[in-house]
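note to self — DONT lose this again. spent like an hour looking for the file last time. sequence + predicted structure for the chain T wanted, 467 res
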Amino acid sequence: MLARRARLSVLLPGSRWFCATLVALVVTVSAGSAFARAVAPVDQRDSLAVVGQPSLLSPAAVARALEWAQRRGLAGSASTLERDLIADVADGRLDRHRLIEASLIACGVARRAKLEAYCERFDTYALRFSARVERTSTPEQALRAALDFLHAEILRGPYSLAATDIRDVLHGGPYNCVSSAALFCCLVDGSPVPLNVVEIPGHTYCVATLPGRSLDIETTCSDWFSMAAGRQIPAPGALAAWERSSPAWQRIVPTTALVGMVYYNRGVALLEEQDYSQAARSFVAALHVDPESRAAWDNLLATLNNWALDARQRGKLSLAAELLAEAHQLDPEHPLVLENAHALDRIRAERLLQQGETGSAMALLVDRAESVGDATDYAAMAAELCQREASRQAAAGRWSAVRDLFALLATQRLQRLDAHNTERQWLLQIVPRSALRSAAADAYLSDAARRWSHDEQIRALVKGLAG
């Protein structure tokens, strides 16, 4: 019988905030082989790819993620600054932190002295800007002055998709839509003009509420105001207002959500580096700040998934199973987590069978079927693995082990498992006739003829072998 090939999927981290989709890489392994990561086409998307409005996260789902992080002990690795920030933003507002402070902590600033130094650097810019903005007469002119100042004084590096770290930007490094939007919002922090952030597929930008209208602001584009008025093509990273007049979906969030986006992008970078525990901690922090962030949720699951696959590669099957079980508890309907859990359970059960621990293998499958709630798949898995193990034992002439194996299968509390038909199918269709003609098989065949005395096909098989 050909061995069924277990398919495991590796989730690439969702792209940074310029792209919130997840890409699936399919990995195929045979029993006992090493896991290999296949390179997928760039346009291959899994079922989590954002098509239309992403489903909203329930408060219960976010609560499960936060509880999971506590059980994993991830909060213990946070700095005092970060713990204070998470406590402050629990009500959805920043009461004890300025936006610049919160953004820098989300970037990874862990020491008070460093935080104060970066804030002092930013405040020098802010003071210069405040002198300039005093000469404006309307809210729109003030916002335009802020964008002009941002690009003239702070955003001195090039645009780069991955450049979220505000520390680098303050030192003249590259920027992206998140870091530029965060710094823009920090410059106008305290302004009487209401300012929010808009998340759309592949991008984020600011929107100001003016009397009687709203005003979009592409912070990556130094000439945004004049370009938008002239309907010219914006600079890299900016999306023209007329191109997003009817996006597939959009989410308007307060400026504090930018802190969550910084955490999210930091998590993506850590996941790409395979620093799974810290990546998970960053995604959980993003959910603390922005409980509606579907991207942070999806990539938390991707982290657990890939962490489990790496554990399997290192031979740590128990850790891999534990991580996939935790991912399943977070999202019981996640298709790739379920697929990988099934494949890993198959490998674990097969290894137990090969070690002669048949009872443990069957108990594993029964327990997992109850945990996952998928009796059909695990019944089929148990039947197939028993047939494969029976063939291995038969080839070695251990027919008493074959008989004991199927007898044990018949005692399992696994719904939809037809142990009688599993053995019958194996005897009629799978086991080689050469193995059945051996002297060692006589006792097994006599017992089979007795148990299936009314089965014409079994009787004909036994009679043919005897002849």
